[in-house]
Amino acid sequence: MSTLRFKMVEQAINRKAIPVPHPAERPADYYGIQVFNEEKMRKYLPAKSYDALLRTMRHGTPLSRETAESVAAGMKQWAMEMGATHYTHWFQPLTGGTAEKHDAFIEHDGRGGIIEELSGKLLIQQEPDASSFPNGGIRNTFEARGYSAWDATSPAFIVGTTLCIPTIFIAYTGEALDFKAPLLRALHAVDEAATAVCRMFDPAVNKVFSYLGWEQEYFLVDESLWAARPDLVLTGRTLMGHESAKNQQLEDHYFGSIPSRVLAFMKDLEYACLRLGIPVKTRHNEVAPNQFELAPVFEETNLANDHNQLLLSTIREVARKHCFRCLLHEKPFKGINGSGKHNNWSLGTDTGVNLLSPGKTPHDNLQFVTFLVNILMAVYRYNGLLKASVMSATNAHRLGANEAPPAIISVFLGSQLSRVLDSIETSTSEETIVMDGKSGFRLSGIAHIPELLLDNTDRNRTSPFAFTGNRFEFRAVGSSDNCADAMITLNSAVAAQLTEFKQEVEKETAAGLSTEKAIFTVLKRYIKTCKPIRFDGNGYSDEWKVEAARRGLDTETSVPLIFDRLIEPRSIEMFAGTGVLSSVELHARAEVKLETYTKKIQIEARVLGDLAMNHILPVASRYQSMLLDKVSKFSEIFGSDEAGELAEQDRELIIKLAGHMKAVQRQVEEMVEARKVANRIENERDKAIAYHDTIAPMLESIRYHIDKLELIVDNEMWPLPKYRELLFLR
Q1: Is this structure's pTM higher than 0.90?
Q2: DSSP 61
Q3: What are the E-state strand segments in 249-395?
């Protein structure tokens, strides 16, 4: 083992769990202590300002400048009492992460000194540089002005000594340059559309909320070993490395006993999260070695998304305190499971009804089936667009592998719900619709739509969009993704579909049908139309790929071509119709996705080329020289005939080494030339396609030969920590 690698592995083996002192109080005693929540608002704000801010948070009522000044003063006082010295507008640019610029609570006092201040103007609005973040051509380098604006519906919080104020980020010309602004628009759109449909069943409904519960998967590796792997440091994944003799095949890690070091880290992470108001609830070992999962209680989608973004920075910080590095790449290790971020999504009313929860009466079940079928229609009509919302250079390694949903969007319902929808589809209104007053309907042969119980379906882990009892689980979202990307698309598509549904029902009622019969008539059409999206079988099978294509589903696997779905006419029409994204904003986002894809593959290619030429080949060459020297000495001692027989095995190794080394060197040179050709392409889409079709396959080919060299070269000489060292925490 190389000296550096030996030291790294030795340090990793000698790690011990770090005891983390926590207060004796129960979690409820320190939950949200770093958040300017309603309790703090009540304490630090005048009653009038408190009431006004609550109306803004709950009903979207505009906030006056006068109230903003009062809120800013109270927020600053609380923050300073908590030890804060700075504030920042915390926003989510199209990088996929978060951004912040810290300013101190100081202003000139006019007498040569300073005063500590946070004005309402500074609370509401700031001006980050809009040209330095991904913008898809909306802003030029010389057009730097952009604005961040306070999102009062998401509470401010303190990290370290900085007050963080959640904001949207828009261009000077008004276009959204972030994920939060269109997410808020999408949530408004689905609220309006769903509320209108709900009032067909219950006129008391005034608002519909979108809820999200994410499940965050991640890997932990020893920081010392991570530091000895330039590919992990620079790309987040191992670009080379032969799989360990033991990985996950015994399935002994899943839900197993949590290692003591990891448990200490998890406790520290949960403590940090709870103080920040992130309601983390579940922790466990995942399937792959060194893989774990954390999940919170459901929250409204905007807040849940903010909390996930906050978690991603918190988990990295806490991991380092425990001498770990947290890997959020979707596929950091080849040959074992990757990581996702399952988005459990549902809709609920201000009257306390979960619209995706089956009811106990025919009336409730008609409402449930109405929303269920409209969601199926939305997913069917925009299945390619939903795939584009979760696709990336990193998630492409995971989707379609035998541990994650395939790169084909389909919906799993389970046998009971499928039978219900099939019964509705095949019924005839003249013979089978029997009205039960205004309470609902029933079908002949079925007393009414049967009582549907929670968890009445099995779970299909191969389905990217599965119904799981009272919610849908969008499993295709990647572990490093911003949840907002998928939630923007899903909520917008459902909003557009519900709007169309209401219009069609109104047409039927105008033709003389009762509301219940009109709903039932439209649902029958929809069930038949969207049937191709329903699939309860094995999504991993080759047969499903053929069948999905036959059904007309989007089966494209090329990442750059999948991004085309963003700017298709029907996508532009849908987003414009819901008021979520304009055509300019959609084209910009497609451009950003293409550019990001190209850059990530480009970085991986450069890192792999460097490692191959400067780390792997020199070591393999030295080992080959050792073998050649050994064969030569055999000849000197035993003579050529006897030496030839004794050194046969070494000769074979020398030949194998030469073949793999030659292939690596040749293919790295070809990859460099291919990059030069691709980099000269000006059109971003064509460049991304070139990187996908030409350069990305070269990474796998080069890796194949390096992994073969790893099996041949003396273990003491190999320069990088191997999978067996990286994947099993000591």
Answers
A1: yes
A2: P
A3: 280-285, 291-296, 299-300, 324-327, 341-349
